[in-house]
Amino acid sequence: MQKLIRLHYMLFPISLILLLTACGGPAVDEKSSEAIPVAYTEAEVRDLSVRREVTAPVVAYKRIYITARTGGLIEEVAFEEGDQIRAGDLLARMDTRRQKAQLRKVRATLQQIQKSYNRTKQLYENDVIPEAEFEAIARELEETKAEAHLWEVEVDLGQIHAPIDAIVSDRLIEVGTTVSENQRLFTIEDHKLLVIRPGLSESDVVHLEKGQEVKLGFDIFPGDTLKGNIRRIFPAADPLTRLFTVEVEIDQAASSRRIYPGYLARLHFVTQQRDNVLAIPPESLITEEEEAFVFVIIDERVTRRRVETGIRRDGWVEIISGLEAGEKVAAANLENLDEDSPVEVHGRFRRHGFRD
Description:
Layout: H1 2-22, H2 30-34, E1 36-42, E2 44-46, E3 50-67, E4 72-77, E5 84-85, E6 90-94, H3 97-125, H4 131-157, E7 159-161, E8 166-171, E9 178-179, E10 184-196, E11 199-200, H5 202-205, E12 213-218, E13 226-233, E14 244-250, E15 264-272, E16 277-280, E17 286-288, E18 291-298, E19 301-313, E20 316-321, E21 328-330, E22 343-348
Parallel strand pairs: 1-22
Antiparallel strand pairs: 1-21, 2-16, 3-10, 3-15, 4-6, 4-9, 5-8, 6-7, 8-10, 10-14, 11-14, 12-13, 12-15, 13-14, 16-20, 17-18, 18-19, 19-20
């Protein structure tokens, strides 16, 4: 009796299905019951280059500190901050009356000794006086000439001249100032060549080279991008910061903006060039025994395909081979997929917080 009851319950669902089918009831959609829901993404060309943004002030490549070559009182100052100067221009003049007086005194002595030398030379040539007497007057003449030259230099040191064409960026003296030897008087700069010298780590510097282009931005010119080029990379790191100085030359000829020393620049370095890279999100990958696979979506079914991967950066994986740009791959529910599995696409896979 119990066996008959169990058989009855087993046959009841089958009978019900046959009855519904015979009566024109709703048929079961075999395809929809088997399709696996997935999200998709496309293999796309992206820029996975490593970029660094650093800030540093603009400085003149040539900056010269003009110092006093002798001590004394400043009698004249010819230029001030912002003035354009030419090589050889007189920047300032010191009181050299004492040096000039000494020079006149020595010159007068030199004149007398020269006359004495001429007489002695004539006597020596006529064998009237011994050679030692002639040599003594000759030595005295040379010493007096050297002393005269020394005082000529002292007079000349009292005049401060510009060594190059430049702009006066700092004037530290006024008329009446008493200065000492080696005291700084002016700072002059050549603004024809402006540079920026940021510090970068060794891991970034190894990927840079002389002549490489660098994009520059300035807060004073929002939205504008200027060009620069790496002029040189210093050979040793700063002992305190452990950073290498990279000197970037500003291409002012190609800019409509006038740049001045002191502007704060934002430098955008590309330390690892990886543009035009085919990439997909790592969620689309399956890794088995150090090999990577993806499920390519074709006509609502998936094909399992092996791919070769490269770098991983900013939430993307480089695809070296196995995919072409534009191909769709499954990016969710991969654990339920197999070769030729039917799928039902429920939208595009998206994430937030990664570089576009």
